[in-house]
Amino acid sequence: MKHILLAAALAATTALTAPAMAADVTVKIATVVSGDHPENVGAQEIKRLVEERSNGEIEVRVFTDGQLGNQRELVEQLRNGSLEMTWVTTGFFGSWEPVMNTLEIGYLFDDREHAFRAFDGELGKEVAALIEKHDVKHLGFYEAGMRHVTNSVRPINSPDDLEGMKLRTPNAKYHLTSVEMMGASPTPMAFGELYAAMEQKVVDGQENPLSNIHAAAFYEVNDHLALTGHLHLTHMVMYSEDQWTKLSKEHQDIIEQAVIDSQQVQRDKVAADDASLLAVLEEKGMQVTRPDRAALAEKVAPLREQAVEEFGDQANRWIELIDQTR
To answer: Which end of the chain has the smaller Cβ count within 10 Å, N or C?
Structure first.
């Protein structure tokens, strides 16, 4: 009897201490923002859904804060198959497909709902088809958010207040040009370098959604926040085409549906941040102004014609599709 009890105890101990079975597939998701940022709320929702629905066959690992590289490096990792999933804004992808710059013309979208209507419709289908020529699989759209200007020089109430102000922008052509046409002096720079650049007065300020401004503690180096709302940006959730083709159809379906189902969670987090963070940033000492958006939009308006001249029918069609969804 003793031997039986001992054997049973050993078996139970072995079951408790034995390592869990390794997942059949590992998916790495990489971002450049902090863990509590809306992007990573989306990433964690993808992780939860994929691991649950695959019964542990797929393990999802989320890498935040630029651990695996900056945005350009992450896209290249997708394209060469060394990373499974990331996202960048439509205009950022203009380095690989120039017409994508059209989607980051200032004041192209009225608000977040307008952008959702456009990207969840025909525009989104055409964007997906275009980027998939570049070794990536498109899975969905996340909200990057409405961008506003912060700086350490002066309050911004009109376009004149932006004159000569050195603002960091992403390295996206029409995004940069929009900020320039508003009156500022744009300086492209990686997001991870921005806080130090503002602290050292290399640039006067920057433009980002409230969630980025708060998460990166830009209130520590910038006193002024202007609610310019000049750009509403959209992230394209992408998977490495090389890695996608190695997945079973069942696993592809699980991952794709998880991204689609996570979109509302991610967008809701952006909306919640926009509703609450303005008061938080004011409490942190930021002086908030509300410039005349119509005056700023008028300065940027000629960029629409410039896009059509540069990119032709595709740019014109996209602008028309966006206008039709107002």
So the answer is: N
What local confidence, expressed as pLDDT, does residue 2 receive? Answer: 44
* CATH code: domain of residue 92: 3.40.190.170
Cα–Cα dist 306/174, whole Å: 10
Residue in the structure block whose two tokens are 């990166």: 216
Classify residue 174: in a domain, yes or no: yes
Q: Which two tokens stand for residue 251?
A: 């696993």
When pLDDT is averaged across residues 45-72 and rounded to a whole number, the result is 97
Query: CB–CB of 61/140 below 8 Å?
Result: no
**pLDDT value for 245:** 98
Q: Which residues, in sequence order, are bridge partners of residue 287?
A: 224
Residue 42: inside a domain:
no
2 lies in some domain: no
pLDDT for res 285:
98
Residue 222 lies in a domain: yes
Rounded to whole angstroms, the Cα distance separating 289 from 160 reads 14
pTM of the predicted protein model:
0.87
Confidence tier at 39 by pLDDT (50, 70, 90): very high
Task: For residue 275, give its domain range.
Answer: 87-324
**Phi-psi region at 146: left, alpha or beta (left = phi > 0; alpha = psi -120 to 50):** beta
How many separate domains does the chain show? Answer: 1
